[in-house]
Design goal:
- It is elongated, with a radius of gyration of 15 Å.
- The protein is built from 5 helices and no strands.
- With about 120 residues, it is an all-alpha fold.
């Protein structure tokens, strides 16, 4: 049973790495859709770069033993902010951010400090 949990967690982290890696690439490369989203938010394009760096840095932390919880925690906070921005500014499409945030919360729980994990 332990190996199922271990491989499941590795698979979940790989999925989240791909999702947030692509999102970070879009933000940092100046994808027109991302530029438009952050223009709508109204905080300036610097915020797009910060979000992209946080996402990219967080998924890198997913794979460093002992600090996975930091990466997952940063992404939970990032997705909580994304949900708020969708509700308050961007429109009602907050469900993807909610799902990603919940999946990051699973990784955070699995790698919480003081918890021995193998993935």
């Amino acid at each position: 049973m332990g190996s199922v949990k271990t491989y499941g967690l590795i698979g979940l982290k790989a999925l989240l790495t791909a999702a947030f890696g692509f999102a970070a690439f879009g933000k940092l490369s100046g994808n027109a859709d991302m530029v438009a989203v952050f223009e709508t938010i109204g905080w300036g394009q610097w915020f797009r770069y910060v979000a992209g760096i946080v996402e990219l840095g967080s998924v890198i932390l997913f794979w460093i033993p002992g600090v996975q919880w930091i990466g997952a925690g940063l992404l939970v906070c990032t997705m909580a902010c994304a949900i708020l921005f969708h509700i308050l500014v961007l429109g009602p499409s907050f469900v993807p951010a909610l799902v990603l945030g919940l999946l990051c919360a699973v990784v955070l729980y699995a790698h919480r400090p003081g918890q021995a994990t193998r993935a």
